[in-house]
């Protein structure tokens, strides 16, 4: 299949640290600029229209469900995409860890769009299922950062994430660019399927303000160094949430363990009482993602449940939680924007905890930026 050219007006982001102490911090602070680049030429916010060539390619492709396939941080973006698809496009959507995809018999469905999410586009664990799906007639879509990479070339359709070169092994700006891109794809299907236009419009309105939203989260940088240092002293930490906050909690936990080397475990709040609550005590705190949404009161009950067992709680929320031990409040941020802002707070929390521990932040032990072996 031949694809039309797409001009990418993204600013050249040089792989230099500039005034930042680490690439990771620099890349965290680049996120508002990248949010703009993701939408440039693809979204007409004035006329509420989507314009990318990728969407034109998809116009006549009949699918009725979506499966995201990816690893690590990119898997979390795909997982977040499943919530966007269900919410905006009313479509069944699932996410699968790429390295597990072929570990059981699998039937490729021609009405499924298989979406591969990858920063490098060279992850061997993802390339193998991609080749398998193609060989069995499946339709594939790539959400990839590196132009010309294997996954971008092998997939039938795709959107680049335009995050620029990411040097830090811990993925930050690539993740929020992936989140924005999966949301765009879900918005395309919202229109294609004639779903609720009010949701489509309000999501676009939020996305138009994304750089400002991200700047609000970045403004919390200095204030959260102290609480991050406290978290750098615990051996185990839970990262918890409900609904669309689950992939955000999982990503925050991954960031935390990757650069602090502290055990961070993400799980759904509602699942705690089915066994894990036994681990909660004053030495095992929880970071809870608490947007002001329909799950708010359930989340508050969970905070009380943890506090009643002596567990300490750090709430990342849109308004202060009375019985939390620490509050990181991102003011006035709701809806789809909250996930982006909370992600940045999670990245900064991990960064400052790792810094207080003197870790090698840009090159954590045992890890490679691009995992090209199975
Ligand atoms: O290049 P990819 O996005 O395909 O890489 C997948 C994972 O290896 C990657 O996201 C990894 O989890 C991150 N470096 C974590 O920060």
Report on the architecture of this protein:
- This protein is α/β, with parallel strands linked by helices and 374 residues long.
- The protein has 2 domains: 11-208, 3-Layer(aba) Sandwich (Rossmann fold), CATH 3.40.50; 216-356, Glucose-6-phosphate isomerase like protein, domain 1 (Rossmann fold).
- Helix content is 41%, strand content 16%.
- The strands form 3 sheets. A 5-stranded parallel β-sheet has the order 4-3-5-6-7, with helices on both faces. Strands 9-8-10-11-12 form a 5-stranded parallel β-sheet, sandwiched between helices.
- Helix 2 runs antiparallel to helix 9, helix 4 packs antiparallel against helix 11 (246-260) and helix 7 packs antiparallel against helix 8.
- The longest helix has 22 residues, at 335-356.
- It is globular and about 55 Å long.
- The model is unreliable at 8-13 (pLDDT under 50).
- 5-amino-5-deoxy-1-O-phosphono-D-mannitol (M6R) binds next to helix 4 and helix 11.
Annotated CATH architecture of the largest domain? 3-Layer(aba) Sandwich
Number of strands: 12
- Biggest sheet layout: 5 strands, parallel
What level of helicity do the residues show? 40-55%
List of distinct ligands in this structure: 5-amino-5-deoxy-1-O-phosphono-D-mannitol
In terms of structural class, how would the helical and strand content be classed?
Answer: alpha/beta
Lateral strand order in the biggest sheet: 4-3-5-6-7
Distance between the termini: 28 Å
Q: What is the number of domains?
A: 2
Alpha-carbon Rg, integer: 20 Å
What is the overall pLDDT average?
95
- Put simply, the count of helices is 13
Tell me the β content. 15-25%
Helix/strand order, N-terminal first: HHEEHEHEEHEHEHHHHEHEEHEEH
Low-pLDDT segments, ≥5 res: 8-13
């Amino acid at each position: 299949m031949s694809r039309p050219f797409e001009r990418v007006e993204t600013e050249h982001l040089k792989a230099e640290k500039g005034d930042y102490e680490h690439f990771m911090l620099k890349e965290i602070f680049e996120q508002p600029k990248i949010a703009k680049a993701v939408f440039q030429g693809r979204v007409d916010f004035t006329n509420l229209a989507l314009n990318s060539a990728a969407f034109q390619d998809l116009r006549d492709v009949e699918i009725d469900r979506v499966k995201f396939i990816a690893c690590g941080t990119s898997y979390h973006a795909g997982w977040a995409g499943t919530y966007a698809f269900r919410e905006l496009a009313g479509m069944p959507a699932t996410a699968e860890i790429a390295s597990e995809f072929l570990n059981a018999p699998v039937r490729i469905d021609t009405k499924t769009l298989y979406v591969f999410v990858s920063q490098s586009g060279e992850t061997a664990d993802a390339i193998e299922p991609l080749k398998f799906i193609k060989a069995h007639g499946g339709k594939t879509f790539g959400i990839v950062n590196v132009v010309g990479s294997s996954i971008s070339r092998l997939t039938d359709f795709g959107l680049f994430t335009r995050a620029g070169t990411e040097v830090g092994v811990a993925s930050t700006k690539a993740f929020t660019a992936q989140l924005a891109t999966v949301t765009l794809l879900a918005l395309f299907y919202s229109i294609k399927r004639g779903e609720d236009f009010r949701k489509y419009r309000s999501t676009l309105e939020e996305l138009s303000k994304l750089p400002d939203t991200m700047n609000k989260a970045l403004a919390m940088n200095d204030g959260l160094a102290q609480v991050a240092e406290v978290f750098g002293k615990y051996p185990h930490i839970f990262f918890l949430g409900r609904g669309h906050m689950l992939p955000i909690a999982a990503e925050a936990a991954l960031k935390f363990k990757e650069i602090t080397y502290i055990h961070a475990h993400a799980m759904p709040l509602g699942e705690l009482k089915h066994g894990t609550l036994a681990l909660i005590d004053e030495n095992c705190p929880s970071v809870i993602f608490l947007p002001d949404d329909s799950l708010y009161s359930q989340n508050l009950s969970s905070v009380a449940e943890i506090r009643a067992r002596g567990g300490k709680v750090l709430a990342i929320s849109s308004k202060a939680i009375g019985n939390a031990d620490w509050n990181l409040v991102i003011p006035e941020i709701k809806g789809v924007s909250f996930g982006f802002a909370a992600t940045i707070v999670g990245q900064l929390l991990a960064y400052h905890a790792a810094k207080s521990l003197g870790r090698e932040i840009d090159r954590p032990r045992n890890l490679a930026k691009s995992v090209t072996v199975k």
